[in-house]
Design brief:
The protein folds into four domains: about 120 residues, Immunoglobulin-like (Sandwich), CATH 2.60.40.10; about 90 residues, Sandwich (Immunoglobulin-like), CATH 2.60.40; about 110 residues, Immunoglobulin-like, CATH 2.60.40; about 120 residues. It has three helices and 38 strands.
Length: about 600
């Protein structure tokens, strides 16, 4: 409000809240009401350049110095001017309109300030994000986009009490709007109705959404893609929540689009081999001892690149299904080689083979800063694996790292190189001296020679310290490798024991089938002999011929059934024999693999 006359006063600044995209009127009134049509009225923002939002001068708009951000969006009503109402209307408000505005009438040297608070909001969305194995609870995720100013996110139970949750992640986009997200673990002790609330007090806005965690068990698999390395074992986590017994239920794991699609079928307490896709033979298992707790997760051994894809877990008795994505990658440690050019400068080349998906290659200095290097060359081989390489010119003595990484499979491999005055040490599996600088003969005075000797002593000491650091790091890496190999050895031993037990069982089945077949064949021979004897008796006693013929026909039908059963037994014996051969082959491979692991452990221990 602006007042005119001897006792003029200025009303205190006021704050007005408006949402993005809306229209708003910033009020400013002359008191007592005075016709302002022929006056000059200035609306501006002190923090802008140019500062003018809108200028009215001598009965018309003056737009020469108007800030371009307000072109076509600022106006004053001529009709209202006649009553001394010099309020400013802003159309389609933007986030950038947020700030303090000044209403000024130069003729009266009076001004009035208004703070415009611009806000934006959107309702949150809540989803099931996965399982918390430690608490047997479900993890909920809440996300809300398009807020301004930055809001806060809260989780509430059915009674309105705040739940303890993970930290809120906040991202500010290029449009200056905020996206907030958070996760909370819901345990059995919590009520079923969970609320996610997002609020911002400056604009007095609150939005919330409720999610009902059902009392009836739901099949929940990880909502995030599971990443695994080729050759490793991987677990596809899936569980019934709230937990119920699944030990007596049929559990089907499939890959839609595969033929046959069955990866692992657990029925009547065992794996149904007949329906399993051959690509997964002897490579899958359930955690049988945990089925009683509703854990129906699938473990895949010795993962292959072809295993990547979408998997489905299905429980027919509950008519529940859930999907999970498996991403398979391949990595290798980079190798650094030194190249000396004619100019005498040293060029390092880093190369890493056998990656999938395509990785990126970086050079880093001792502080972890990225170094400027030549472009990365990428080659994709016939096995679909990538080879990347890059070169770096060494400009000074430094500790340099070549890092190869792939974010989709969350894998990083790197090799460190220590550049000293006399040599280079490379840590990429084995120590290598890559380049020896040639000594230069120096003619100097006695004093200069002593300085040179002292410098060489310090250099040698530095080299020894560097070598000790390298050897310690190498020892730590070898200890980790030995630990992993021993764990791998344990898994292989368990698989070999299981395969040997299965082989013995198959051998027993094969023997039982053969003995049963022999008994049936003997029975059939006895039936035929008895039938021939009846033929002779029928010839002697014609009055009983009809009865004997009927009996012979019955025995003939019995023999036909016996033949059918023999064929079935022979087919079963053939299938069992084939399965036994396959088991023997896989067992031999696993035994060879175990021997190779033991050799690697022995070699690592000797290094």
């Amino acid at each position: 409000m602006l007042t005119t006359g001897q006792s003029q006063t200025i009303s205190p600044p006021q704050s007005i809240v408006v949402m993005v995209g809306e229209d708003i009127v910033l009020p400013c009134q002359l008191e007592p009401p005075t016709d302002a049509v022929q006056m000059t009225v200035e609306w501006g923002r002190p923090d802008l350049n140019p500062r003018f939002v809108y200028v009215w001068h001598n009965g018309q708009e003056l737009l020469v110095d108007q800030n371009t951000a307000y072109e076509g969006r600022a106006s004053i009503s001529v009709n209202y001017l006649k009553q001394g109402d010099i309020s400013l209307k802003l159309s389609k408000v933007k986030i950038s309109d947020n700030g303090i505005y000044r209403c000024y009438v130069p003729k009266q040297s009076k001004e009035h300030f208004i703070e415009l608070v611009v806000g934006a909001f959107s309702p949150p969305s809540t989803t099931l994000a996965g399982l918390d194995r430690s608490s047997s609870g479900v993890v909920l995720q809440c996300e809300s986009k398009g807020w301004y100013p930055e809001p806060e996110l809260l989780w509430l139970d059915a009674e309105g009490k705040i739940l303890s949750a993970g930290p809120t992640e906040t991202v500010r986009g290029p449009d200056d709007l905020y996206t907030v997200s958070s996760r909370v673990t819901v345990e059995k002790r919590h009520s079923n109705n969970i609320t996610c609330r997002v609020q911002e007090r400056n604009i007095n806005q609150t939005r919330e959404t409720q999610m009902h965690v059902p009392g009836q068990s739901q099949l929940i698999c990880s909502s995030e893609s599971v990443a695994a390395q080729a050759g490793e074992d991987v677990i596809l986590p899936c569980r019934l929540y709230p937990p119920i017994r699944a030990s007596s239920r049929t559990v089907e794991w499939t890959r839609p689009g595969l033929d046959p699609e069955y990866i692992h079928v657990h029925q009547d307490g065992r794996l149904v081999y007949q329906s399993q896709n051959p690509l997964y033979s002897y490579r899958t298992t359930l955690f049988v001892d945990q089925l009683v707790n509703g854990n129906v997760s699938l473990k895949i051994f010795n993962v292959k690149m072809s295993d990547a894809g979408k998997y489905k877990c299905f429980l027919p008795s509950l008519w529940k299904e859930a999907f999970i994505q498996l991403t398979v990658g391949s990595t290798s440690s980079p190798v650094i080689a030194g190249i000396e050019r004619n100019s005498g400068e040293l060029v390092l080349q880093c190369e890493s083979k056998g990656w999938y998906p395509e990785p990126e290659l970086l050079w880093l200095d001792a502080e972890g800063k990225i170094l400027s290097a030549g472009p990365t060359e990428t080659v994709r081989g016939p096995d679909d694996l990538y080879t990347v390489s890059s070169r770096l010119t060494v400009e000074k003595i430094d500790n340099i790292t070549c890092r190869v990484q792939q974010s989709n499979i969350n894998q990083t491999r790197e090799t460190h190189i220590y550049v000293t005055e006399t040599k280079l040490h490379v840590e990429n599996g084995n120590e290598q001296i890559m380049r020896q600088k040639s000594a230069t003969t120096v003619h100097s005075t006695t004093e200069e020679q002593s300085l040179v000797k002292e410098k060489r002593k310090r250099s040698k000491k530095t080299d020894k310290d560097t070598e000790m650091k390298y050897l310690n790091k190498r020892k730590e890496k070898l200890d980790d490798e030995i630990k992993k190999k021993k764990e791998e050895q344990k898994d292989v031993t368990e698989m070999i024991d299981a395969l040997e037990a299965q082989r013995e069982e198959l051998q027993k089945v094969t023997q039982e089938v053969r003995e049963r077949t022999k008994r049936i064949e003997k029975l059939m021979e006895e039936n035929e002999a008895e039938a021939n004897a009846l033929d002779n008796e029928t010839g002697k006693k014609l009055d009983k011929a009809q009865r004997y013929s009927k009996l012979k026909r019955i025995m003939s039908e019995g023999n036909s059934k016996v033949k059918t059963e023999i064929q079935q037994q022979q087919s079963l014996e053939l299938n069992t024999s084939k399965l036994l051969v396959t088991t023997e082959a896989v067992l031999q491979k696993m035994t060879d693999w175990k021997k190779e692991i033991e050799r690697n452990i022995k070699q690592s221990t000797m290094i």
